[in-house]
Write a structure and sequence with these properties.
With 126 residues, the protein is an all-beta fold. Helices cover 0% and strands 45% of the residues. Strands 2, 4, 5, 6, 9, 10 and 11 form a 7-stranded mixed beta sheet that branches. The protein has a 4-stranded antiparallel beta sheet with strand order 1-3-8-7, with no helix packed on it.
């Protein structure tokens, strides 16, 4: 079982940048498929970005393509979400998630992930 802890959220003006961190408790985290999701106020949790445990492909929601970058540091059991050109509509609680048994077509479905962090608030406002 893996525990995930997110950090890095905060208040940023439109056009600003933030970097979110997700640190895992297991050395075997490298084998897990990983995703970032967000839940805006009074809305459902939606897909932001994901990557498989191995391989270099990363997948993004259309709303964040070209602005957000998901990366990982296997030695540190950490995944990152670099967020640039932030917009007010990016305001949400951001969650990282992990699971060992996903296929590419299910990476964007939050119900497929077994492990979740507690979330970190991102607010984009002037």
């Amino acid at each position: 079982q893996v525990q995930l802890v997110e950090s890095g959220g905060g208040l940023v003006p439109p056009g600003g940048s933030l970097r979110l961190f997700c640190i895992a408790s297991l050395q075997t985290f490298i084998a897990y498929h990983k995703g970032w999701f967000r839940q805006p106020p009074r809305s459902v949790r939606v897909f932001v970005a994901a990557m498989k445990g191995t391989g270099s492909s990363t997948y993004y929601a259309n709303s964040v393509k070209g602005r957000f970058t998901m990366a990982r540091d296997n030695a540190q059991n950490t995944v990152y979400l670099h967020m640039n050109s932030l917009k007010p509509e990016d305001t949400a609680v951001y969650y990282c998630a992990a699971d060992r048994n996903l296929i590419t077509s299910t990476l964007g479905n939050p119900s497929e992930y077994d492990y979740w962090g507690q979330g970190t608030q991102v607010t984009v406002s002037s």
